[in-house]
Amino acid sequence: MNELQPGLEDHTPVWAIFGDLMSALVGVFVLILVWVLGYQVELTQSLQQEVVRREAEQERRMVLEEALATPLASGRITLRDGRIGISGSVLFALNSDELQPGGRDLLNSLVSPLKLYLGEQNELLMVSGFTDDLPIQQGNLSYSDNWELSAQRALTVTRALIEEGMPPSLVFAAAFGSQQPVVANSDDSSRSQNRRVEMAPVPRAAAEQVPE
């Protein structure tokens, strides 16, 4: 029987251990590579979806701007980020929810183009009321605060649109009070800008999520 020479031990060759280690490293590298490639594919898809969404949004705004070309040209309404803005002074007297004759005429001119646009886009029209930050004057006992006034103004405009031919199923009202001013309430001029009514076409799914 052959005996091991002194100083020699029976152990696994170094090259075998090195091979196992390299195999493990290659496996880890492959897993990382697969994860990176999957992440890049997901990121690319997300970017493409965002591009499509923005292009669709831009197209919607262009269609809306074209539909409202005549009232926009008159300068009596504004269109910003898909929201139609009407100065409160055009529609109502200060601290009042009674629609002025000129305001009703303006709303009447908006019904036909908006009704056509909403039908083509399968959307609803949200009518939102806003006020400035000044409290309701003490002499006005109809409303306790700006929330109630903005709500009533939004309802007044909504009802006027319906009376002028807008289908009730296509329009609803919302109130924001003095929240979400377009400019800081620093003087009479800025406050007059914040006293306004906005109309914005919204997807039906988004409208269904608006709390009553």
In words, what does this structure look like?
- By secondary structure, the protein is α+β, with helices and mostly antiparallel strands.
- Helix content is 54%, strand content 14%.
- It folds into 2 domains: 14-61; 68-208, 2-Layer Sandwich (60s Ribosomal Protein L30, Chain: A), CATH 3.30.1330.60.
- The protein is built from 7 helices and 5 strands; from the N terminus they run H-H-E-E-H-H-E-H-E-H-E-H.
- It has a 5-stranded mixed beta sheet with strand order 1-2-5-3-4.
- Strand 3 (123-130), helix 5 and strand 4 (171-175) form a beta-alpha-beta unit.
- Helix 1 packs across helix 4.
- The longest helix is centred in the N-terminal third of the chain and has 54 residues, at 14-67.
- It is elongated.
- The termini are far apart.
- The model has no long low-confidence stretch (mean pLDDT 82).
List the helices and strands and how they pair.
Layout lengths: L13 H54 L1 H6 L3 E3 L2 E5 H4 L9 H21 L1 E8 L15 H18 L7 E5 L12 H7 L1 E8 H5 L4
Parallel strand pairs: 3-4
Antiparallel strand pairs: 1-2, 2-5, 3-5
Helix pairs in contact: 1-4
InterPro entries: Bact_OuterMem_StrucFunc, OmpA-like, OmpA-like_sf
Pfam family, one: OmpA
Protein name: OmpA-like domain-containing protein
Question: What's the short version?
Answer:
It holds the Pfam family OmpA. By secondary structure, the protein is of the alpha+beta class. It has seven helices and five strands; from the N terminus they run ααββααβαβαβα.
